[in-house]
UniProtKB/TrEMBL annotation, chain A:
This is ABC transporter permease. It comes from Fuscovulum blasticum DSM 2131. The chain crosses the membrane at residues 54-73, 85-105, 111-132, 139-160, 186-205, 231-253, 273-291, 303-320. GO terms for biological process: siderophore-iron import into cell. GO terms for cellular component: plasma membrane. GO terms for molecular function: transmembrane transporter activity.
UniProtKB/TrEMBL annotation, chain B:
Gene3D superfamilies: Nitrogenase molybdenum iron protein domain. This is ABC transporter substrate-binding protein. The keyword Phosphoprotein does not apply. SUPFAM superfamilies: Helical backbone' metal receptor. Residues 53-300 form the Fe/B12 periplasmic-binding domain. Residues 1-38 form the signal peptide. Keywords: Signal. InterPro entries: ABC_Transporter_SBP, ABC_transptr_periplasmic_BD.
Amino acid sequence: MKLILPLLALLVALLFAASLLIGPAGLGLGESLRALFRGEGEAMVLVMREIRLPRAILGLMAGAVLGLSGAAMQGYLRNPLAEPGLIGVSSSAALGAVLALQTGLAATLPLALPLAALAGAGASVLLVLVMAGPRGGALALILAGIALSALSGAVTSLVLNLSPNPFAAMEIVHWMMGSLADRSMSHVWLAVPFMVAGMAALLTLGRGLDALTLGEDAAQSMGVNLPRLRLVLILGTAASVGAAVAVAGAVGFVGLVVPHLLRPLVGARPSRLLPAAALGGAAMLLAADIATRLIAPDRDLKLGVLTALVGAPFFLHLIWRMRRVEA
Amino acid sequence: MVNKAAYRRDRHTSAARRPYARQTWAIPALFAINAAFAALCTTPAAADPAPARVVSINLCTDQLAMLLAAPGQLVSVSDLATDIRSSSMVDQAAAYPANHGGAEEVFLLHPDLVLAGTYTTLGSVDMLRRLGVRVVQVPPVNALDQVPEQIIAVGQALGREDAARKLVAEFQAGLAALAVDLPPATAALYFPNGYTTGKGTLADDVLTRTGFANVGATAGLTGGGTLPLERLVLAEPQVVVTSTPYPGASRAEEILSHPALAEIRKKAGISAASDADWVCGTPYILRAVAGMRQAREALK
């Protein structure tokens, strides 16, 4: 079981390389690598460094963010259904991003885009935690999440429909489903610092979440500062998920599926699950993004379509299992 | 990816920039239907007196009707005729009340002739015909050679054959004066969502006539479709023609400011914008031809 982290890291590295090497232009292996590392071949350098590299980096980072925040939320709420997509964090972040773009704020101040998404994500995490209560009852959590998702989805659609830009309304599906097509290095520079900061904050929560598995009282008696843990969770999730959604749209189910698959492999300890879920999320999103390019190279198939095809049946399976446990 | 601007053009105008390659199956069928209609309509039309109240509900027929109609003959043009991004005749169109192509509002204008495109909201066209209004549908233009037929067709419908013949003569003289005799350079048309146009489109014909090889056509596209940015970059076009972004933000248009595309455009040195003049087969297409001819000559 000690091998799980190195193995996941290897898988992520392989998928990252595959993401760089697969694309509609159909470049050879040798020439792609020469273009990427040595800068040979002008047009190919542009393809590798300006088109494929940002896409691969954002796929890796967004996946890691979603896997990690899913694991952290599930650990804090002790509820297997908590996930940024399901409880409305992603769609609220999308609303923030859309508002920043459509008010023109993001055009004058680029940082406004990730910051607005961060604010949207932060507000929704806070709201969901309040609604679900300290014990994080499954029903309250999911219902609050559904209401929040529906509300922010509706407002996002409204804002895009009212945009003077005729293309904006057609992009509702992008914000709901997510896509990494035609992202550039400027998106990477804008989003990655927030994602790294958020992930660093979430990764510090391991010990506190371990203690929390024994219950709140036990955790507090072990010296865990619960209000602080909660604050770090909110800020870390908001920064990382907000930045990911601002550039890639809301991709669902990664934070649900990955922690569940990995939990048995790490002995169900949150402190070990957190890094594993980050790596697993990165692998899942990179794989999904590669699949979109292999299935429909010219079509900009949305990432969320693929993750939902895997994740939704999984979600139903989880509910089924919980029902049997509760019965 | 579906896009609204293209949908709007679809509703009113030429097939040249329609984004739906998958809809091209409809073209032969529609042409056949249209040809049958034209055969039915033209005989009585020639004998009829010129229509007195004409309403146009298609961007391209709007502009041809404004160019050809007698004073007072044209009652209303479509709302797109006053859209600066679609219409070359915004100022002239402002003098006419706008319609939105709906059967009810058009019928209430009491027209004795409605000019429409073959892709114009077919439901409205059918209803107007059932209500006894004469509707002439004009097919979209896919090549510069088809522009004279288009002008003549609208001229005949309006009973303004002389004005139409005069306009055709001017158009042909203008086109001949813009002839380019240079070996083909590469050019790409690149629009939001990576949309481009290939063979069999008016834009492709403009490029071919001005000494360019269209990257979209070379990539094997017929009609419209998307060209991934990677493939555009590798084609290293010498000129990139893009559209001007709309106000408000959209992800679809972000591709036009992608660093990789900016780099290609910087190397190309020349970038042109495709604007309203490119949309329809009217004499204004000559301005697009002149612009591209200038770009080609600057490459020498």
